Amino acid sequence: MLAAGLRDPKDVASVRKRLADLRQQYSYAAVLVRELVATDFRIKYQSSFLGYLWSLLRPLFMFVIMYIFFGIFLGAGGGLPNYASYLLLGILLWNFFAEVTSGGVTAVVGQAGMLRKLYFPKYTVILSVAITSFINLLINGVVLAILMSVFGADIGWESFLLIPLVIELAIFGTGVAFMLSALYVRFRDTGYVWDILLQAGMYVTPIFYSLSFVRGKSLWTAAFLSLNPMAQIIQDVRYVMITKQTTTLDDLVRTGWFRLIPIAFVLAFTSWAIWFFKRRAPMFAEEV
Amino acid sequence: MDIALSVKDIHKEFILPHERHSSLKAVLMRTRDRGYEMQHVLRGVSFDIPKGEFFGIVGRNGSGKSTLLKILAGIYQPTSGTVERDGSLVPLIELGVGFNPELSARDNVYLNGAMVGFSRRQVDGMYDDIVEFAGLSQFMDQKLKNYSSGMQVRLAFSIATRTKADILLLDEVLAVGDADFQRKCLAYFHDLKQSGATVIFVSHSMDSVREFCDRAVLLEQGELVAAGTADEVAQAYTRLFSPPPEPESEGADGQRFGTGDVRFEHAEVSPEFTETDDDIAITARLSPRAGFDRRVRLGVLIRTAEGTHVLGSNSATATEARAFEAEVTGSTDIHWHVPNILNDGDYSVTLIAADAASHEILEQWDEAAHFSVRREPRTTNLMAPSISLAVVPVG
Description:
The complex is a heterodimer of chains A (288) and B (395).
Chain A: H1 2-7, H2 9-47, H3 53-73, H4 83-107, H5 112-117, H6 123-151, H7 162-186, H8 189-204, H9 211-217, H10 219-225, H11 229-241, H12 249-252, H13 260-280, H14 284-287
Helix pairs in contact in A: 2-6, 3-4, 4-6, 4-7, 4-8, 4-11, 6-7, 7-11, 7-13, 9-10
Chain B: E1 3-17, H1 24-28, E2 36-50, E3 54-59, H2 65-73, E4 80-85, E5 89-92, H3 105-115, H4 120-134, H5 149-160, E6 167-171, H6 179-195, E7 198-202, H7 206-212, E8 215-220, E9 223-229, H8 230-240, E10 256-257, E11 262-270, E12 273-274, E13 280-288, E14 295-304, E15 309-312, E16 325-327, E17 332-338, E18 345-355, E19 361-373
Parallel strand pairs in B: 3-7, 3-8, 5-6, 6-7, 12-19
Antiparallel strand pairs in B: 1-2, 1-4, 8-9, 10-19, 11-13, 13-17, 14-15, 14-16, 14-18, 18-19
């Protein structure tokens, strides 16, 4: 019995000590993450003329190009209201995913010097990449909010669902980053393979086209595409923020349980990725 | 006695593939190159370090010291065996870990501070001291890449000296730099010792080990070959570099080089083993080649087993009065008398004959002979002359 065991003052002391150790360990990790994130921002800010602005401008340029080609010339909007907001939101969410995962690939190897000279919790380097990307996403979100007020949006009570959806996105991106960074230590091909997969992912995920467009050709393809967690997240965020005409999983598959597939996948995959990373982490110092 | 660190039967093997399997192709086409070597770096190392001890780890290059240090720090995982630790540990294997050249020195203080476990607020509190100790107050807003390597080391060391941990791992390579910096490092090691911290100290310098360490272990090819007081281990370490014992120093034929116009023979030291302050006599016969009739400058050099030059009677900078020159036309016996002010240890004798005019080396005979001096108790100094003392009350 725990309670009975704790009556022994020796046990109380040892539990207290263990708690203190844990607190020390996590506060060290927190300080480290904070400094790594701050370093990243300082360097971005200092190293170029427009500094940090570039992180914001890149997705905006991508948006302008895509809007001109797909929206105006090709009509990929398919008559969706608020297509500009719809497109920009998709680009920003995808951009976060691309940033956190490709940053994750080199996160561990990039700290090789530190790995060989210091003992520290390895997950801190992944968390710092994730937090850096997340801050970028939030700042982009401010820009998006301004543009949404210009291009149009559909904000209501349901918009609060944005929060759990963004959390799901952050968990998924971080999970993929955990897996990729551990793989990259052993296999340097990971970087190239992931580049290609990201490219492919951009087309598989309905970022610039609407799912209803695909649905018109094949319902099953559309359903299959939207099982991809990135598609589910992007479509759901659009649904709650931009327009109720966004095609989501609910429209494609009437069974409610299907809703859970992408979410369950995100949670299961991320748990596995963390387990995998943790298992590989003790060998990083020797293998990088 | 409380144990700070307990090491039990540590083994470490590195798998060294002939070609690194860091690409997919290499893994998929494993059949083509499956060659690898196992490198057994540590073979069953065990020891305990009580709290508050200054503990030395010594060994030659490649003996497994660095690997052991990294295992103690948790950076490497042992193949088998355990390390049990009570308290926090910070490794100072290298200075300035995580320094980013693109950041200002100020930002790097916070970054490096975080690496060794300080929060932002803690660094705030010690920032001025760090800067002042490094002597860099005017340069803190400069990017680190514009620092000289000396300035970087000063800054990094200044942060390192603030490190607070129950156990510190120190690599002696920290103390590289100019004389002033080395003094600062040694002063820091002294302070650590005074403070009663548990320190694990890796060093090649037996003088430092004797000076700082309470106990030490000697690693040789991944095994602990000696453990005991700093003095015992330092002696064992020194013996690793001594040639195998030979009954007669005359039989020891070391390295010779030079033009060979003259040749030393029959080098002899008497006594070969001494516990007294009596002079040490070195005798050798010098035989010139037929027809040789130039002036020769003769020199003798005494080295410790570690190779430190202790004293000698010949160098290019020797004054006229100290240089020893002679006309050599036939076989000549040469006798040197060296006052024995040497400390406990094993020594080797090098004999040198150079052309007096051109300073060209005609013959240099390293390890021409060996001798040993025993002093009880041993001091940590290089020399151990008898020093007389007079205490005269004034008034």
